[in-house]
Amino acid sequence: MGALTTLSSPKLIKPTILNQFPPNKIPSLQFNPPPSTKPTNLFSSSALKSSNDAVPPLVVVGSANADIYVEIDRLPKVGETISAKSGQALAGGKGANQAVCGAKLEYPTYFLGQVGKDANGKLITEALEGGGVFLDHLSTVSDAPTGHAVVMLQGDGQNSIIIVGGANMECWPESLGEEDLEVVRNAGIVLLQREIPDKVNVQVAKAARSAHVPVILDAGGVDSPIPPELLNVIDILSPNETELARLTNMPTESFEQISQAVGKCLKMGVKQVLVKLGHRGSVLFTQGEEPIRQSIISAPAVVDTTGAGDTFTAAFAVALVEGKSKKECLRFAAAAASLCVQVKGAIPGMPDRESVLDLLQAV
């Protein structure tokens, strides 16, 4: 249904970052543009006039983890040891997840992050490459291990996760290099999360703001307040209901409570809040406008919810930078998340573009 299901994909061309978009001509995305400045719809063939045209990329700055999966019937009690049905290591991390999702949705995507010189770093690098992500800005550090996470996956697909930061939190330079900041300034949209140091996110968001590049901050990650310096330079804050409750110290059980908690975020300086509500769907709040609600697109079976939120956020960002309406962005993201939960593993579960469009056409 709708334009998302019928229009062609943008051509996946590796952008010539330093030459294609000089600093004074960087494409910017207006969130509420007048008709004369509405962003180009990159789904349409008219947006791709020649094979030499390059699309301003999605740039994901964030974490990369080796996810150690253990399948269990239930969580252990204090002092109790239980046996897992199985265990395996898969590539993950919120940043890597979102980058692979963007690339599998056929949007040119760069990942800026760090891994260690170890087997887990190789696992993640291969997964990113296999997903079609450009790795020009992925660093390998020798003084910290690759980040990893223990994912305790229960029979109903729900999970509990413990993260060890490793290279995601350590060994970052005091100031990011000019080449890294340049790819940010030339992006079509930037995705951040909170599994890397806040000081890195602040540098990236400020660089993006200076070039009028929109920034989405996924609130998932460290359990600490978001610095006002960061909140003031992002365009969309995207928490789930648990993260929203933690950030605001307010309940988020009902829609009214969620709205009140979002109101507190808006008072902090955020202009838009995209709340992911799991089986209850999602809501986009924009200051001065009515909230836009999106229900889930039901999956025949929920195998693993790991990475579903990352899939949703990345798919929303792809649709947004391609010029779709906010309502269409939410629907596109809901379809992508529905497909993700049907496969075990975050990166293995990321859907391709054709699958998302087919699902949208079927519902």
Automatic annotation (TrEMBL):
Cofactor, how bound (note): Requires a divalent cation, most likely magnesium in vivo, as an electrophilic catalyst to aid phosphoryl group transfer. It is the chelate of the metal and the nucleotide that is the actual substrate.
One MF term in GO for this entry? ATP binding
What protein name applies here? Ribokinase
Q: List residues of the Carbohydrate kinase PfkB domain.
A: 58-352
What domain of life? Eukaryota
Q: Matching PANTHER family, A to Z?
A: RIBOKINASE (PTHR10584:SF166), SUGAR KINASE (PTHR10584)
| Active site positions | 310 (proton acceptor)
Top EC group: transferase
Report the protein's function.
Catalyzes the phosphorylation of ribose at O-5 in a reaction requiring ATP and magnesium. The resulting D-ribose-5-phosphate can then be used either for sythesis of nucleotides, histidine, and tryptophan, or as a component of the pentose phosphate pathway.
EC numbers for this chain:
2.7.1.15
Q: How is its activity regulated?
A: Activated by a monovalent cation that binds near, but not in, the active site. The most likely occupant of the site in vivo is potassium. Ion binding induces a conformational change that may alter substrate affinity.
